[in-house]
Amino acid sequence: MDSSRFSPISWKEGILTLLDQRVLPGKKSFLNLETVDDTVTCIREMAVRGAPAIAITGVFGLALGARAQSGNVDKTDVENLIAKVFASRPTAVNLSFALKEAKKRVEQVLSWEDHYKIWKAYAVEMMQKDLSDNLRLGKNGVSLFSKSQKEFHVITHCNTGALATAGHGTALGVIRSLRDAGNKVVVYADETRPFLQGSRLTAFEMMEEGIECHIITDGMSGWLMNHKKIDAVLVGCDRVAANGDTANKIGTYNLAIVAKEHSVPFYVCATRDSFDLSLEDGRKIPIEMRKEEEVTVFDFLKNGKGELYLQPGTTSPAGARALNPSFDVTPHKFISSFITEFGCFLPGEIGSRLS
């Protein structure tokens, strides 16, 4: 897989095509979208996921929504269209920033046709910039690893690669860049319950790249750090507050605490659009709550004859309740460094670096 070209998103002749990440790694299936409602559904149902990819898809969704209209715009209709896309996944700040910029770019534009052209061009621009930013981020991340060492063992959480971005990736982008610099990298990928982005998607990307990867359960990182030399934990993020508190896939906070206990560097990989300086700390970051069924339903429990121990797809007692927050917030004190396209820095340096 060419990580600099591989992307879950493409646009050709007015059709938005997404790689359906819900069915990976079993098969590669592509979805052709022609309406904003299709786009919103794919974001909400996680056919496309990862903060950068969501933002790009969201702006393409605006373009599709504009194309379905004719004549001059009504400002209320524009605001409703933007609100519909924003509601698809509220935690990732990239989408919020992208929609604000999209709105700004059409403030003086009267026709729906011009809205379509401007938003389509902006989405293409976002794709190109995200890939460029990720390549620079990966190079910056390499600088944090010892030049005298040629083999590195890292733990990842969720999926932060080409599938989550316009290409190369953030945390997985650092891993790719380490490999491209001539190092051997061994990846331990948290399975990332309940949606299994680590075991389904990160392992898929690493196997496509020929990078050694071992899937671990989300509760295994403490044992792993206690029994093997782990050089770093590399994660992405969906939103970073002004003080460095970081929202990322549920389970990131736990992983940061375990890394701190074992003196393993914990690196958050993020591009500029993931930093939200309007929030003083992580307490104000909205946390998306998803369907309980994602926690209570599964279908791998079978006996030696291949017969299901439970009813198809169920791992919990009938009627069992579940909590399913999609993200958690890691306090800045557990973060060793941010790795970005404009350098590496401590949480306390966010204000000066982004001013």
TrEMBL record:
<dbReference type="InterPro" id="IPR042529">
    <property type="entry name" value="IF_2B-like_C"/>
</dbReference>
<keyword id="KW-0028">Amino-acid biosynthesis</keyword>
<dbReference type="InterPro" id="IPR027363">
    <property type="entry name" value="M1Pi_N"/>
</dbReference>
<comment type="similarity">
    <text>Belongs to the EIF-2B alpha/beta/delta subunits family. MtnA subfamily.</text>
</comment>
<feature type="binding site">
    <location>
        <position position="89"/>
    </location>
    <ligand>
        <name>substrate</name>
    </ligand>
</feature>
<feature type="active site" description="Proton donor">
    <location>
        <position position="238"/>
    </location>
</feature>
<dbReference type="InterPro" id="IPR011559">
    <property type="entry name" value="Initiation_fac_2B_a/b/d"/>
</dbReference>
<dbReference type="InterPro" id="IPR005251">
    <property type="entry name" value="IF-M1Pi"/>
</dbReference>
<protein>
    <recommendedName>
        <fullName>Methylthioribose-1-phosphate isomerase</fullName>
        <ecNumber>5.3.1.23</ecNumber>
    </recommendedName>
</protein>
<dbReference type="GO" id="GO:0019509">
    <property type="term" value="P:L-methionine salvage from methylthioadenosine"/>
</dbReference>
<dbReference type="InterPro" id="IPR000649">
    <property type="entry name" value="IF-2B-related"/>
</dbReference>
<comment type="pathway">
    <text>Amino-acid biosynthesis; L-methionine biosynthesis via salvage pathway; L-methionine from S-methyl-5-thio-alpha-D-ribose 1-phosphate: step 1/6.</text>
</comment>
<dbReference type="GO" id="GO:0046523">
    <property type="term" value="F:S-methyl-5-thioribose-1-phosphate isomerase activity"/>
</dbReference>
<keyword id="KW-0486">Methionine biosynthesis</keyword>
<keyword id="KW-0413">Isomerase</keyword>
<feature type="binding site">
    <location>
        <begin position="49"/>
        <end position="51"/>
    </location>
    <ligand>
        <name>substrate</name>
    </ligand>
</feature>
<dbReference type="InterPro" id="IPR037171">
    <property type="entry name" value="NagB/RpiA_transferase-like"/>
</dbReference>
<dbReference type="Pfam" id="PF01008">
    <property type="entry name" value="IF-2B"/>
</dbReference>
<comment type="function">
    <text>Catalyzes the interconversion of methylthioribose-1-phosphate (MTR-1-P) into methylthioribulose-1-phosphate (MTRu-1-P).</text>
</comment>
<feature type="binding site">
    <location>
        <begin position="248"/>
        <end position="249"/>
    </location>
    <ligand>
        <name>substrate</name>
    </ligand>
</feature>
<feature type="site" description="Transition state stabilizer">
    <location>
        <position position="158"/>
    </location>
</feature>
<feature type="binding site">
    <location>
        <position position="197"/>
    </location>
    <ligand>
        <name>substrate</name>
    </ligand>
</feature>
